[in-house]
Amino acid sequence: MGLKFKLKKELNHIYKDFDAYWAIDNIVVYPENGQSYVHFEVTAYASRDAKHKDKESVREPLPNEIPFGGAISPIYDTALFKAVQEVPTASIFSSVPSSISEQKDILYAYVKPLLQNAGVSYEDVLEEV
Question: Coil, strand, or helix at residue 7?
């Protein structure tokens, strides 16, 4: 699952408006000072395909495609915007699910009202199985 909503050009390094694909990743539950916290990231990509290409190698152009030069970076860095969240575990989970899929479902349910309260309109994007 992911979410789709506008990312303004002023908020990303390509300086282009996107109907961005937003995904939750890098979920970590950790203890600190006798408390339990959840760390997660909400990252915007130009599309779901761009998310799946993130950190893959960029192939060199063939001479008949572009006869000179190459990519600025040897890997795809497709992230356009990232929000890092650190939240007390008890404010999200009554008990932490063992599957990443269940954790993400609960985290999306946590993030959606925050977006609505901020006046952000979004669409759910369901993953292909």
Answer: strand
Work out the pLDDT band at 126, boundaries 50, 70, 90. Answer: confident
CB within 8 Å of 38: residues ≥ 6 apart: 27, 28, 29, 85, 86, 87, 88, 89, 92, 93, 96, 107
112: helix, strand or coil:
helix
Which of 92, 78, 103, 101 minimizes the C-alpha distance to 13? 78
Q: Token match 């990743």: residue? A: 25
Whole-model pTM: value is 0.86
**Residue pLDDT, tens place only, 25-46:** 999 999 999 999 999 999 999 9
Are 37 and 86 in contact by the 8 Å Cβ rule? The answer is yes
3-state helix, strand, coil in the chain (%, to 5): 25, 35, 40
Strands 18-32 and 79-88: unpaired
d(CA 9, CA 12): 6
